[in-house]
Predict the structure.
Amino acid sequence: MRVLHEDWVRRSLVAALLLLAGAAPAQALIGERAPKATWLNPACCGEITLSGPEAAGLTLIGFYASRPDLLQGDWSYLDAIAARYAEDGVQVLLVTTARGADAARRAAGCFAFVDEAGLAEKEWLGDIDAPQGRLVAVDGDGVVQFVGAPGCGVVDMLERQVAGAPDGCFEERARSWRAQLVEGYDDLASGPTITLLEPMVARAPRDGLLSGLLYLTYATKANDAEAARALQDQAIAAMADAPRALAAFADLALRGDPLRPELWRALRAPLQDAAARAADDPTVQLALLRALISDHDDRAAGRLAMTCHKRVCATAEGCLDFAMLLVRAETPMVYGDLARGAVARAVELGGDARLIAAAQYVIALRCEEDRSGADAVLAGYLADRGALYSHNNDAWSFLTGLATAARFDWFAVGLVECLLVDEAAMDYFELDTAALAMFLVGRAEEAVGLQEAALAQGGSLEAAYRDRLARYKAYQALSLR
């Protein structure tokens, strides 16, 4: 890796950087000229040329100044892209802090720029969020071609660029819908969502997020097992050479549809291949761990957990995902120390206090079989909530939010059990939430009863309520065979 630092100015007088010229927006917007790269110093960064006659065909820039911890997991992904597309005129630039420099040095095929103040990220991305992503692609004319996240359409975009068929309109539409779907997926009906996503997935078959959302729509909203299975096979084939994209798909599919054996069995072998090729990518390792635990293979899951736990616990999010995967094992008690250690590390890394409390509750319940300890955690959690707190809304958020789904289901059950103490006083939408919580922890009979009560008390006009009841009954019928 070639590290480019502002301190090198006096030592590295090389060819001048051709900075992007003309008026530019304050942020990187697809289809428009990129902001001026004022953070790249021509004296030290002459090898990096973003526009002009000496520019590469495309420059993919990863911004990690505000989250250098994420680069610990992304460097191998970006290095693989740099190696794969170097002969096609693609260069990869990592922008991080001194803290992230160690990870950047491992990406031998990438350039890196240390931006301790985060100036580049602020100029190019503003207030970014997870759906927006940290990757920006700029073509040789200085026009932004892509803004997104690893595993979400990057390879599809690069293939179009290499083929000489860029499609900025599609890239912007996909970027916009990724953000909107992640934010409000639960509120969307199955029909319009399928109509929206099918052509997008056809255009970007290696977008793990979009394929994962389409799978979930088929499997959990439309209850179309045949369509879900076909998409599952299609995604596995399309992402055979894209480990991060396959992991993004598998993570969403396995979390959103956790009770379907054919899904985890189909994903297990491809994820094992992906994990072997992306040994340093925590997203891929966690996806494989989820498949192994779903497949009730505690021996293989235990081996992987021991070898990958340091790598996946580089971020607070990774710590919590790892811990909440271990509690789903057939024998969660054996993973108590690993799970508690991961949550303690999440605390050190400044993880979300709400999610940490939920994780502590689940560990007490599942790993320690300590109901009183779990209740104490829940009592403390509720004591910290405001006067307008809603058990129902909080539980629903845990159950259906794409970031939390299938990670804190037992905590959501704890929240709805507070309501079920007086079931007769519950509204139909609260019964609907309670039913989903019970279903997701394997209590299908209770889920059916609660959902039937929700329909009887006022939810009969809600198509989603009827769809959920059909899903619970279908699973109950399979489990009784």
Remarks:
- Residues 68-85 form the longest helix (18 residues).
- Confidence is low (pLDDT under 50) at residues 1-24.
- The radius of gyration is 24 Å.
- The beta strands are 2-4, 58-63, 90-96, 111-114, 135-139, 144-148.
